[in-house]
Amino acid sequence: MKIRNNALAGIALAATAALGLSACGGSPAPAGSASPEATNGEITVYNAQHESLTQEWVDAFTKETGIKVTMRQGDDTEMSNQIVQEGQASPADVFLTENSPAMAQVENAGLFADVDKDTVAQVPEAFRPSTNKWTGIAARSTVLVYDKAKLTEDKLPKSLLDLAKPEWKGKWAASPSGADFQAIVAALVELKGEAAADAWLKAMKDNAKVYKGNSTAMKAVNAGEVDSALIYHYYYFGDQAKTGENSKNVSQYYFKNQDPGAFLSVSGGGVLKSSKNADKAQAFLKFITGKKGQEVLQKGTSFEYAIASEVPANEKLVPIKDLQAPTVDPAKLNSQKVTELMTKAGLL
């Protein structure tokens, strides 16, 4: 993990976002000019979801509607910062993320249009922000993956907060620089308060081993480097569906009981207020939260949770109702506060 101060991080973030957009779909339109897509009825999606998953959505949507979609790929923070920087001149019509805090950042900047009522009606209240300025499109559960040879379930922490105890020093890992982990911390702040999150992060600095990426953290558990790692559920299922070589020695532990460790992170989708093709952008959002779009999650290999249009999750996953996740309003997940706290704790 690279340790950066706030100023350098901000500069690097903006530069990375610009480079990421250039590499994934061409340079953004200059300020004050319409995007090329706007002139021919196509839509542009700034995508921070998994590229393969969104490509499935795009292909199915275009096949059904004939509407072409240009996708520009980046991560949550890169894309949300890019959209805020571009403001009303952004060429993006739709923004998709892996986690909620990036959506909240764009919403707080006043850049989202209201989501069409028909789309809102497809998504249960638990999986969308109270403001309805964007909507949930998928979800992922927090889990602790652990080495079956070193730990048994009766020795695992009863709560996420227990990982701050001295007996867990050196026994768990995480990827604090990633948007996934920062979403978990955002939920911790919302559920337990800033002081509790601050104390937990300071203890994490002493207790946890740091890896770059959730897959790398799980691989380290599988290789016996560390006893456990805090990640999202789909990394395990994705590896198992392939060779299983990075998860064969690993089991997953679900905290449940409305614990912060049972946080279910909502992936978001929203239509930009500045979109030149708002009707088509809204149609795309309605499609991915509709039955056909959610069946891409149910039947595909992303192993993220389907959450809308009454489509059940992939049969390999623990049913959402059994996760016993805490109730968190996605609109209240504050990425700026999380960055401040994690930087203060020496994790960023």
Could you walk me through the main structural features you see in this protein, from its secondary elements to its overall organization?
There is one protein chain. Helices cover 41% and strands 14% of the residues. It has helices spanning 6-25, 51-65, 76-86, 100-108, 117-122, 179-192, 194-207, 214-222, 234-241, 278-289, 291-299, 320-323, 335-344; strands spanning 43-47, 69-73, 94-96, 135-147, 172-174, 208-210, 228-232, 250-253, 264-271. Strands 1, 2, 3, 4, 5, 6, 7, 8 and 9 form a nine-stranded mixed beta sheet that branches. α2 (51-65) links the parallel β1 and β2.
Cα-atom Rg, whole angstroms? 20 Å
Give the distance, in angstroms, between the N- and C-terminal Cα atoms. 8 Å
Total strands: the figure is 9
- Helix/strand order: HEHEHEHHEEHHEHEHEEHHHH
Write a compact overview of the structure shown.
The chain has 348 residues and is an alpha/beta fold. It contains 13 helices and nine strands.
